[in-house]
């Protein structure tokens, strides 16, 4: 559960700075009355507001899904921006990664046109690297790039 207590001084600032979510995916119940979520358009780099649609959930693809899908799924960069001085709440359910198995693209997603992009890795190892290097927009995945890529 995220609660943003925005005062007048917060308007125009970020409640959460640009990041990717580390896990497989995030299921987000956003505040239905207060906008603020913005995603980065991968092509233009523009920040695009994702205004809430009552009765719907937002699903974010995270870093683990990018690795697991051999690069087919894209880890979306996003942030939360303060548009107005009010309280904003959201509920995020993080689906992370297997605890006892490595993150690894299944053979069906690897072929000569799509060579394996990442070596298998433990989520915990990824998490430690991501936090210790403050690589919050997926850069830490580079450490697990397969030699041929
Ligand atoms: O509050 C939101 O809309 C998103 C929060 C978020 O990006 C996160 O918890 O990872
Ligand atoms: Fe997020």
Automatic annotation (TrEMBL):
One of its GO terms (molecular function) is dioxygenase activity. The keyword Oxidoreductase applies. Coiled coil: none annotated. InterPro entries: IPNS-like_FE2OG_OXY, IPNS-like_sf, Iron_ascorbate_oxido_reductase, Oxoglu/Fe-dep_dioxygenase_dom. Keywords: Dioxygenase, Oxidoreductase. The keyword Transmembrane does not apply. Residues 1-97 form the Fe2OG dioxygenase domain. PANTHER family: 2-OXOGLUTARATE (2OG) AND FE(II)-DEPENDENT OXYGENASE SUPERFAMILY PROTEIN-RELATED (PTHR47990). This is 2-oxoglutarate-dependent dioxygenase DAO. It comes from Sesamum alatum.
